[in-house]
């Protein structure tokens, strides 16, 4: 199962944190720091896998992708296949790119809630449920659309109901 | 949202309606003043323009417009005019800006204007018509405002500013200036004038004159004037013959347009673009590059600068050049400097010289601080680099090789940049558009920006705590609109992500989940699931909402609720939502079904018992119409199958079918990922099959075909293809082996290993590690690849390779491997991994040490560098090893070993910073053997020991060891009759320790003092020389009371029944029963204790610490290993230990050692050991028992051992075999964890053995060599007892020549069984042993498994006949 998804900048700033297995909140920053130290020490052009049992407990592995100024990090246990998770990162990034049209770090900072929406479509409770970025985009757009809709519609019924209630 | 950009080109530019109904920002139907309208009058048009252009280009001229500030001011003028609605008028006015400086020409200008106006039929007063705009007054560029026919109110803002001096009539002004009353830039200007006196008059003329055929007209709706070409019928807002100023700014790029290219404005975006009148092609970029070297007029830098700013200005907030402060469209490059400054200052970005060529996003975007480059919204007119950006976007395929988003850029981190850093973020309109429709406000933006700019952590913390205070206030404020609340909450989430406590807002998040509006609700759920977890108190408030929302009509609400449920619903709350979730499994939306499956899975993980009755739902969902739901269902099924494969065996065929269909692309193509059909589903299925096929020949048989199929179709080019292949290899190495499949797997593995990608190498190493368990030969051909990986700079790969080597270690390569490991270990700082690798070094060294010398040295190295990290038992083990020597036969070698150890320790002991455990070893060895060979004097050693004690005043353990060692030295000296003097400092140490806080140290000190007073005889008794490995019996079972107990029984006392037995806890009963057995065993002991236990030794000497507690499984390991050692046959490659410990047990009366199970060797040895144990149960520590243990061990693989087995068989009778068999049954059955039944079976055997059996029978542990009839019985029994998993191998084993092979097989197939066996084997043994088993840390377990695997792997043919029979034929 996937234990955590992290996006952090190359300066070590968290941009997105999502934990699927329980981690006490006060530990989050330590985890980010630990992972960042690990990743920043790695040279270019090495493998994208790191064993992180020292940070996340026995058997934990991590797959990361370094894109421009961001690290995309997926932490998972032995029940996942490293290469597959690497592709999952790819799916995630591809989806972001679709979603933001040439995504950049700023998008991720400002729209981390959207990132969460995307992640929720991909991973639920630590298990991968969707791996097609197209499909993910479709649902995310649907959500956006319905949100907008419900935004406008909810105002009317609200006023009506208020009138009725008076 | 970007559509207009994607197809931004209205090619119907020419057909624009004559008087535009609305004011176009700028519309240039005729963007080539040179070429078309103006070209008709070349004599007064282009020539003059060219002249003025070159004049303007003189950077040395002190022309206000031309220096750095000038560029900027001009732009401002442009901007102001553009943003004014009366665009056309102002534009034309601005275009004359330069005229302002040439005041002496003003009059003439006025005349010209008048002339022009006359032509158009609009009289114009020269003086009144011009509003002079002073340089530096609001409109920095200054300019003569052409106010001929503008509605006066429009430029008021400008005009107002310039009132005052500039409003004065020109002549008056000149007069004033002459008198020195008016002092402004006018002075400057007059100065300029002098320089420009020779500026051609025709310039101005050109500026004022409309080309022939052009007429100025007024738009009736707006009052703005436009121009109309009578001959062509075209209209435009701009003056046709662009006046001088415009020339300077616009002409160069325009003029550089090639034939047929025209410039136009995209109406929707207000952006300039170019189109080809011939081809109708359109583009954002000017068709030719404006490059300093290529520019037609070879302008100087400054001119190019100007040229670069040619286009319109859209926004007053243009980014400014960090060098010169200039700004303008396209002027400031992404790195914050204009091209000019870049060149002048020789900035590193020069490599991307001028902008039109500079279109690759990687260069334009990668520079931090460039926010402008990031702009995707078409809602607002793109500005700045939007041009390039959009261009790039359309041309994306060309750029793709640089695009890090390119799926093909897999393994290595791409260098390109689609991301800009946050440093120096400039808050501007564009950024808020970046937030898109998801509505982050300016406040949030500012927060992010200030955090990004924070210089220190402290500053950041301050900013955030200020933000938190603000949020706290706002959130508590009831008047805050709900819409706003959402944003506040998101900001709170952001603050919490940065590690700040936002707990005050949790309740607000909970509240927001109650909201009716979907966005708010979703935000609420998001915040709640990020803030809270199932243990949080507030969750109880959410449960109700979730419950309600699960019933919602809106599937998005349901989804949000399910997502939150996954995260928040704890064990107690599961029943509250369970019915709804189950209902949702049949929801019409597949997204909901998928999530419901996952939620159910999550519940199952949380609390299997509460969902167990619903597990069948997963099976049902497997048949879901939607492949996505089916794929999702595989996740819970995988977990379930992992737990209990047997109850899902029936699904094997279904899984295989699904996999087959997926691999054959029967799924909709929407499930393809990078041309692979639903790869993630395939991987999951393969994982499941691996579990189901493990050790199940029949199930595996079903899989071979589809696996082969996947191998054939395998795509090694793509990442995901390799992922599937890797999973296939895992599957094949896990299921029942098939030669053909293994070949395919080996082939793929070698492909991985030969690949250049580190990722694939990593996978290759991993796969190799799996395959060599089955066939160790595979490793041979990849030796070089493996060595390469070992040298690789990639740490991950290195570690993985060490893991592999660890699995591959044999006595032949142990030296190389361990040396490598230690070398690596010294260099790493990661404690966690250091510990791991150190303990592996130790383990390998103990198992395979080729020589004692090497072993000691290796251990020294390990202790020196990781002494504090390794288990203290390893240290004890080393001491014991040195003490026991490596074989009785060769005392000389032993003492040689000891003295070499002493030598090395004396050398090392002075070094600073030795780990505590290492010092303990040193002290102990020096104490025991420091003076043994007479090389060193007692006082020398004592001095060294004293130094140690002094150097570590805080480490009580080390001090205790040191003082004990000193005691021993004294004792030995006294025993030898030599008199040694107490060193004064030593005496003071003793005094100090006698007053120590630690009672242990005190006691030792007092004992030392007491010992000094004893005579030789007494000392010899108390501290016998070289007796450290003599066993000291501690009769924990109080066997000396047996007689008394017996008597009591005879007198009718009720026998004691252990509590656990009374309550019927079976497993404990076993243990207790053993205790009793042991008691009797002691009673039956017939071998004399070798030496009387010395009481003082027990308390003083550290050796005693070792002796009485026979727990460490480490001991067992090497005992066992060493026992197995002497055989010189081929298999000794595996066991070829040269540490000969065979005789050790003889010294150690203690059964524990010989009874130890051998974790590192296969279960078979454990079994045999087990036999040994029971022989001891029988009350013997005799060498015979040991022999049998040894024999049983050997027997598993070698002929030599077979001989020994025969010997053993002839030595020991059938009864033993029977006993052994019985015991074995017990063990097997307990391995299946059916403890109760297990108990029943072994019990008779034990009973038979324990109480009464005659010593010779008991002693032996029976070598289960030849399958004899009695053996068969327990096995048939076994068949019934065993679970299906282990049953089949065991049963199939029976006919094989040796029963001991069974466990080997089992260890291959199932780790679980293996562990089961381990525990089982220890169970029937003595209580002491149980202790040992209990103490074994989980790591130990893991190591045991590994070791077992190794053994299996290395001696394949001999060990696993069944397995390989199958493999080979």
Automatic annotation (TrEMBL), chain A:
UniProt cross-references to SUPFAM superfamilies, sorted A to Z: SNARE-like
GO annotations of cellular component type: endomembrane system; membrane coat
UniProt xrefs under InterPro entries: AP_complex_ssu, AP_mu_sigma_su, Clathrin_sm-chain_CS, Longin-like_dom_sf
Gene Ontology terms: biological process: intracellular protein transport; vesicle-mediated transport
Segments forming domain AP complex mu/sigma subunit: 1-145
Keyword entries, A-Z: Membrane, Protein transport, Transport
TM region positions: none
UniProt subcellular location: Endomembrane system
Family to which this protein belongs: Belongs to the adaptor complexes small subunit family.
Protein name (Swiss-Prot/TrEMBL): AP complex subunit sigma
Organism: Oryza sativa subsp. japonica
Highest classification ranks of the organism: Eukaryota, Viridiplantae, Streptophyta, Embryophyta, Tracheophyta
From TrEMBL, chain B:
A cellular component term, taken from the record's GO annotations: endomembrane system
Basic residues compositional bias, start-end: 386-395
Predominant localisation class: membrane
UniProt biased composition (Basic and acidic residues): 1214-1231
All residue ranges annotated as the WW domain in the record: 208-242, 255-289
UniProt protein name: WW domain-containing protein
Pfam families: Adaptin_N (PF01602), WW (PF00397)
Region called Disordered, residue ranges: 1-54, 353-414, 1094-1134, 1148-1304
InterPro entries linked to this entry: Adaptor_Complx_Large_Subunit, ARM-like, ARM-type_fold, Clathrin/coatomer_adapt-like_N, WW_dom, WW_dom_sf
Keyword Kinase tagged: no
Gene Ontology terms describing biological process: intracellular protein transport; vesicle-mediated transport
Subcellular location: Endomembrane system
Residue ranges with Low complexity bias: 43-54, 1154-1183
Biased composition range(s): Polar residues: 353-368, 1184-1199, 1232-1242, 1289-1302
Biased composition (Pro residues): 8-22
Alphabetized CDD domains for the sequence: WW
Keywords assigned by UniProt, alphabetized: Membrane, Protein transport, Transport
């Amino acid at each position: 199962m996937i234990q955590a998804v992290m996006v952090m900048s190359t300066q070590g700033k968290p941009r997105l944190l999502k934990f699927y297995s329980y981690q006490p909140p006060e530990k989050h920053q330590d985890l980010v720091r630990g992972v960042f130290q690990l990743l920043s020490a790695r040279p270019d052009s090495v493998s994208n896998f790191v064993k992180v049992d020292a940070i996340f407990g026995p058997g934990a592995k991590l797959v990361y992708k370094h894109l421009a100024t961001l690290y995309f990090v997926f932490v998972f246990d032995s029940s996942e296949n490293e290469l597959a998770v690497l592709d999952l990162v790819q799916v995630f990034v591809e989806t972001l790119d679709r979603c933001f049209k040439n995504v950049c770090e700023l998008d991720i900072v400002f729209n981390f809630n959207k990132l969460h929406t995307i992640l929720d479509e991909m991973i639920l409770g630590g298990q991968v449920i969707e791996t097609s970025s197209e499909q993910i985009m479709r649902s995310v757009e649907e959500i956006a659309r319905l949100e907008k809709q419900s935004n406008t519609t909810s105002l009317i019924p609200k006023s009506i109901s208020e009138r009725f209630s008076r | 949202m970007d559509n207009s950009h994607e197809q931004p080109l209205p090619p119907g530019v020419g057909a624009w309606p004559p008087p535009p109904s609305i004011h176009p920002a700028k519309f240039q139907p005729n963007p080539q003043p040179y070429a078309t309208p103006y070209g008709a009058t070349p004599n007064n048009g282009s020539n003059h323009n060219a002249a003025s252009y070159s004049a303007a280009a003189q950077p040395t001229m002190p022309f206000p417009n031309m220096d750095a500030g000038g560029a900027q001011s001009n732009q401002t003028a442009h901007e102001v005019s553009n943003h004014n609605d009366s665009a056309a008028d102002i534009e034309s006015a601005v275009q004359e800006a330069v005229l302002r400086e040439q005041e002496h020409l003003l009059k003439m200008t006025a005349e010209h204007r008048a002339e022009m106006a006359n032509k158009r039929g609009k009289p114009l007063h020269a003086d009144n018509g011009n509003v002079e705009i002073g340089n530096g007054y609001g409109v920095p560029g200054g300019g003569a405002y052409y106010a001929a026919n503008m509605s006066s109110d429009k430029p008021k803002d400008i005009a107002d500013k310039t009132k005052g001096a500039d409003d004065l009539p020109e002549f008056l002004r000149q007069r004033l200036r002459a008198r020195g009353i008016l002092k402004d830039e006018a002075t400057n200007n007059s100065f300029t004038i002098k320089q420009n006196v020779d500026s051609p008059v025709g310039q101005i003329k050109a500026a004022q004159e409309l080309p022939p055929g052009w007429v100025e007209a007024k738009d009736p709706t707006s009052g703005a004037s436009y121009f109309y070409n009578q001959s062509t019928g075209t209209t435009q807002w701009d003056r046709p013959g662009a006046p001088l100023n415009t020339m300077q700014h616009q002409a160069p790029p325009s003029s550089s347009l090639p034939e047929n290219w025209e410039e136009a404005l995209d109406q929707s975006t207000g952006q300039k673009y170019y189109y080809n009148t011939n081809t109708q092609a359109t583009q954002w970029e000017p068709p030719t590059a404006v490059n300093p070297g290529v520019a037609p007029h070879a302008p100087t830098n400054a001119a190019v600068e100007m040229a670069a700013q040619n286009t319109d200005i859209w926004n007053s907030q243009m980014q400014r050049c960090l060098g010169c402060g200039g700004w303008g469209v396209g002027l400031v490059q992404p790195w914050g400097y204009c091209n000019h400054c870049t060149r002048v200052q020789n900035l590193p970005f020069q490599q991307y010289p001028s902008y039109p060529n500079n279109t690759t996003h990687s260069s334009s975007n990668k520079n931090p601080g460039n926010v402008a480059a990031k702009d995707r919204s078409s809602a607002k007119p793109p500005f700045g680099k939007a041009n390039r950006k959009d261009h790039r976007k359309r041309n994306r395929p060309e750029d793709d090789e640089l695009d890090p988003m390119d799926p093909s850029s897999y393994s290595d981190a791409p260098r390109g940049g689609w991301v800009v850093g946050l440093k120096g973020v400039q808050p501007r309109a564009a950024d808020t558009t970046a937030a898109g429709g998801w509505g982050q406000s300016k406040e949030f933006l500012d927060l992010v920006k200030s955090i990004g700019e924070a210089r220190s952590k402290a500053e950041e913390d301050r900013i955030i705590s200020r933000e938190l205070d603000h949020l706290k206030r706002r959130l508590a404020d009831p008047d805050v609109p709900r819409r706003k609340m959402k944003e506040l909450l998101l900001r709170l989430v952001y603050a919490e992500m940065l590690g700040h406590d936002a707990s005050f807002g949790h309740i607000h998040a909970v509240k927001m989940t109650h909201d009716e509006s979907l966005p708010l609700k979703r935000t609420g759920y998001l915040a709640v699931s990020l803030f809270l977890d199932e243990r949080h108190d507030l969750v109880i408030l959410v449960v109700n909402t979730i419950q309600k929302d699960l019933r919602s009509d809106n599937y998005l609400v349901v989804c949000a609720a399910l997502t939150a449920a996954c995260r928040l619903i704890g064990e107690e709350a599961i029943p509250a939502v369970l019915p709804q979730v189950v209902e949702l499994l049949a929801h019409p939306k597949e997204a909901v079904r998928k999530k419901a499956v996952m939620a159910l899975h999550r519940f199952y993980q949380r609390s299997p018992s509460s969902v167990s009755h619903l597990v069948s739902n997963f099976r049902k969902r497997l048949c879901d119409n939607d492949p996505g739901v089916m794929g999702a269902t595989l996740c819970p099924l995988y977990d379930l199958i992992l737990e209990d494969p047997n109850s899902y065996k029936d699904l094997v065929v279904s899984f295989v079918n699904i996999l087959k269909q997926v691999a054959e692309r029967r799924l909709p193509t929407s499930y393809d990922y990078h041309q692979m059909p639903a790869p993630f589903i395939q991987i999951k299925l393969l994982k499941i099959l691996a579990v189901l096929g493990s050790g199940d020949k029949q199930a595996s048989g079903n899989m071979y075909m589809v696996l082969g199929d996947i191998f054939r179709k395998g795509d090694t080019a793509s990442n995901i293809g390799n992922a599937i292949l890797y999973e296939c290899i895992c599957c094949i190495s896990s299921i029942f082996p098939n030669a053909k499949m293994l070949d395919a797997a080996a082939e793929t593995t070698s492909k991985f290993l030969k690949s250049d990608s580190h990722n694939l190498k990593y996978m290759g190493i991993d796969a190799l590690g799996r395959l060599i368990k089955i066939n160790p030969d595979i490793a041979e051909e990849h030796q070089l690849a493996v060595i390469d990986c070992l040298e690789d700079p990639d740490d991950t790969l290195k570690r993985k390779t060490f893991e592999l080597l660890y699995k591959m270690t044999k006595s032949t390569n142990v030296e190389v491997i361990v040396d490598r490991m230690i070398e690596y270990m010294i260099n790493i700082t990661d404690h966690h991994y250091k510990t791991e690798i150190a303990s592996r070094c130790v383990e390998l060294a103990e198992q395979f040490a080729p020589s004692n010398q090497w072993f000691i040295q290796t251990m020294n190295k390990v202790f020196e560098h990781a002494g504090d990290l390794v288990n203290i038992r390893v240290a004890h083990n080393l001491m014991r090893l040195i003490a026991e020597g490596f074989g009785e036969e060769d005392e000389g070698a032993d003492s040689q070993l000891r003295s070499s150890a002493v030598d090395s320790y004396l050398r090392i002991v002075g070094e600073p910073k030795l780990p505590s455990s290492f010092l303990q070893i040193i002290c102990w060895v020096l104490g025991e053997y420091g003076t043994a060979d007479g090389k060193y004097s007692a006082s020398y050693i004592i001095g060294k020991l004293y130094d140690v004690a002094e150097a570590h005043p805080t480490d009580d353990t080390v001090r205790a060891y040191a003082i004990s060692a000193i005691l021993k030295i004294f004792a030995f000296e006294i025993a030898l009759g030599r008199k040694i003097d107490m060193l004064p400092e030593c005496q003071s140490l003793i005094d100090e320790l006698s007053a120590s806080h630690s009672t242990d140290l005190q006691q030792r000190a007092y004992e030392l003092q007491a010992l000094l007073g004893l005579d030789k005889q007494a000392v010899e008794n108390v501290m016998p020389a070289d007796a450290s490995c003599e066993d000291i019996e501690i009769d924990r079972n109080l066997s000396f009371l047996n007689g008394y107990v017996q008597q009591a029984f005879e007198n009718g006392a009720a026998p004691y029944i252990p509590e656990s037995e009374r309550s019927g806890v079976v497993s404990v009963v076993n243990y207790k029963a053993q205790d009793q057995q042991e008691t009797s065993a002691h009673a039956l002991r017939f071998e004399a204790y070798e030496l009387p236990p010395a009481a003082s030794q027990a308390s003083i000497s550290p050796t005693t610490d070792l002796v009485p507690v026979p727990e460490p499984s480490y001991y067992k390991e090497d005992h066992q290993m060493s026992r197995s050692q002497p055989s010189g046959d081929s298999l000794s490659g595996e066991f070829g230990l040269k540490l000969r410990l065979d005789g050790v047990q003889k010294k150690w009366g203690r059964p524990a050692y010989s009874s130890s199970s051998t974790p590192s060797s296969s279960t078979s040895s454990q079994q045999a050991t087990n036999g040994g144990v029971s022989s001891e149960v029988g009350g013997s520590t005799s060498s015979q028992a040991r022999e049998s243990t040894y024999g049983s061990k050997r027997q598993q693989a070698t002929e030599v051992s077979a001989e020994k087995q025969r010997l053993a068989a002839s030595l020991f009778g059938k009864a033993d075999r029977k006993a052994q068999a019985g015991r074995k049954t017990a063990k097997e059955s307990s391995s299946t964890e059916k403890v109760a039944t297990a108990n029943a079976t072994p019990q008779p055997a034990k009973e038979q053995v324990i109480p009464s059996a005659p010593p010779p029978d008991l002693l032996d542990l029976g070598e289960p060599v030849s399958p004899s009839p009695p053996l068969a019985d327990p096995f048939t029994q076994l068949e019934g007892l065993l679970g299906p998993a282990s049953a089949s191998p065991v049963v199939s084993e029976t006919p094989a020549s040796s029963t001991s092979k069974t466990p080997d097989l089992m260890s291959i197939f199932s780790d679980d069984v293996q562990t089961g066996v381990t525990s089982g084997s220890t169970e029937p043994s003595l209580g002491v042993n149980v202790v040992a088993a209990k103490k074994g840390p989980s790591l130990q377990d893991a190591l045991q498994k590994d070791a077992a695997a190794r053994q299996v792997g290395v001696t394949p043919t001999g060990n696993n006949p069944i397995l390989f029979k199958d493999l080979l034929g």
